[in-house]
Structure formats: structure tokens, C-alpha cells
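Same chain as my last thread, 233 residues:
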Amino acid sequence: MLSHYVQESGVTGGWLALAALGLAVVAYFLGCFNGAVVVSRYILRNDVRNHGSGNGGLTNFYRTFGGPLTAVVILSDVVKAVLAVLFGVLIANMISPVLVPVAKYWTGMFCLLGHMFPCTFQFRGGKGILSGGTIAFMLDWRVALVVWGGFLILAVITRYVSLGSCWAGLSFPFVSAFVYQDTLITLIATVLGALILWKHRGNIQRIVQGNESKFSFHRKGAQDAPQDEEEGT
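reply #2:
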């Protein structure tokens, strides 16, 4: 699986492993900058994870607080994903351009792990859809089209953000395999998709039972956001 990268890049496996480790660490800690938690804890002085679903994600932040600071949360989750992938591209290009696609997936995976399980916030983060969707745009337009297209169609028609999120997680490895036809990239994409589906396991169960919450642009206050709601970001 790795031998052709070693051969085509012209560097040793040890150097590739060291570069991969460095990329993983940087991408993970970028992912740990969770906009919803940072804004709610340090600006609003009211941790979003104490409300609604208890999830440190965009939708729970919007449902709980709303307001212009939601844009700050969106921007932070997008920017950290962009920076993580661009850093992977920069290092990969310095070694060999052949490594760029797999470096994008590699840094994307660890950025998403940081967002979902931030060591800076007791490993309680978001569900990764906004950051994951940004990563999809950074990978390839065909990947983004399938992932985001299905997400938007399902979310708009059903008003279940989580259903669109599940589509994103499920379709991601398949479209990645089709576009790149690379075993390692497909494996990383499968891990990414599985992480998203696992984070939405409660939503999947409620969709099957018919009691999943639907998204509304009407913001609930922090005091009345239902405790059993779980969203898709």
C-alpha cells in the first residue's frame, strides 16, 4: 500500500513516516480549536456543551445562542480545516507532488479528529460536518459535489440536518475511491466516513424511531433548548 509512494516520491519510508507524524500533530491541534466552544466559553461565558444536545458543534450553538457570533463559529471551523489541508499540501509539495492527494486526506482526517475529540476541551467536540465539508471542497470538486449535493438535498427536503450528515459520511469513501482509485486514500476516507457516522449514531436511531429533531431557523433560547436534541455538526 505504501511502497508505491516511497518509490514515486523518491524518499525513504522513514522520512515519509516522520512527515506524516508531523502533519498529523499540526492538523489535530488545528482541529482542536473548536469555534463553538471557544466563543461560548470565553466570549459568552456560557459553555454551549451545557445546553441542548451537549454537543460542541455549530447547530447546537445556533439553536442555543444564535446571533452574529454564529458567523464566527462558522468561520473558525472553516478556516482551521483550510489551514490543515493547505499545510499538508505545502509539506507534500516540498517532498514530492505525488504525495499531495494523500496528504490532503491525512491532514483532513486528523483535523476532524481534533474537532470531534479536542484534548483542549475534555475530548468533547462537534460532529465534524462543517469542517468535514470544508475538507471535501479542498480535496476535489467531484468529492465536494457528491458529499455536499446529497447533504443539501436531504437536509432541505427532510429538514433533518443529521440525515444529510449521514449521507456525507456514507458517500465519502465511495466517491473518494471512484475519484482517486487509490487504496490508502480509500482507507483514510473510510475512516473519515466511519467517524462521522459513529458521531451520528444517536441521530440514526432517532430517525428510525421517528423522533429526530428537525432543523428550524427559529432559534431556541439557551433555557429552553431540549436536552435530547442532537444535531449534525
